[in-house]
Amino acid sequence: MIVHEGIEENLRFLILEVRKQVEKTRKFLARPSRKLLDSVRAKDDYIDNLKSIIQRKCFKHAVRDTKLQQAEIDLLKAIEIVAVNLERVADFSENIIGQAGYVIDHDVLDVYDFDPMLEVVIRALDAVADAVFQQDVQVALSVCRAEDELDRLYAQVFHRVLDDMKAGGEPQSLVTVLFIYRYLERMGDSLLNMGEAVISAAMGERIKIDRFWALEDSLDNANLDEMKENLRNVALRPMGETKSGCRISSVQNEKTGGRAVIFKEGKLGKLLDEKRSIEQWHELVPGLAPRIHSFHHQGENGSILFEYLPGRTFEEIIMRQEVPRIESALSDICAVLQEVWTRTRDDKPVPAGFMKQMRARLGDVYQLHPSFRQEAWHVDGLRFNALEDLVEQAFALEEKYLRPPFSVFIHGDFNIDNILYDAEQKAVHFIDLHRSRFTDYL
Question: Where do the domains of the chain lie?
Fold first, then answer.
């Protein structure tokens, strides 16, 4: 992809200058000198100006050139993010040299080896240009991995410094050494930002590295080799975010085409609930819920790769105001509901717990409608209870008397944006199913 306005040349110069700053920092830590100190500080304004030039050109190019494709705009955004983070790396280099002036016991700079972390930074900087201008996801990943490596090295040094302090080492010098290593570790954060920016531009959606690993593992577990082996050609397209905070994207190999899949990522608990619910839907009413290609979890987060279901949400159909299509969709949805309720009916009553839900959400209700929070009051001797009292009374009545005679398997979040309708196939599908359960059909 061609980058106009001299942006590529400017960014390559910026990478070169920042690399020089890191190299000078390495030399300074090995043998401190006033000459190196002045040389690093003298380049600060130049690097800052070069970053500003790149930012200005990117913004100007994005605004003025109306013929730019979205992929070109995404690349300009990535270049701007890379430039900002390169300047931060240069600032950290200057911070490190400034910190060295607080060292009292200069032998400490010989005892601690800063080279391993500096080498990781330099190696990553050398990969930035290829990652950006070739939009090479694998090279961008190598830049991202520098952050993990720097974190690992910093953790080792951190414990060593603490041990040396306990052993009676000179405190000010050791604290200063720790600050120096901390600045090197923060360079890793900037490198991670650069790598993520390039990956996001290549894939068409802002993506953090943890989410990328989850996607890669999900594709691997789903045996979708064509996508996994050609991640450079895989495009992510945002499809929204659920109320529970899950992010949803379509995933497709743009070069070869083929059918897309849906990637959903969020908190593990919610996605485990959805996985179990979908599996239950497949047992009870096959074909109504999407098929799961793979499920992946790491720590507190999880991800699901679904089949892509054709059609529109019922909400979209209504908003288009095409009455015949609305009537057709509504008729088919009602028929599906009747089938679901008939097929899943269980004579065992399961209380819905409406007032239990209301009681749990009363705090949120008051935040949105503060006028609802009122004390009980009297009118001509007649008492009107406060909302909390009414909820408690209704809760007691529901628990004691309101038992449904039977239960059915419900969607659980049956909003019109969670119903898909394929007009060509006259097919109805349910999505976002983490609250599905047997309960009162009302």
Answer: 7-203, 209-307, 312-439
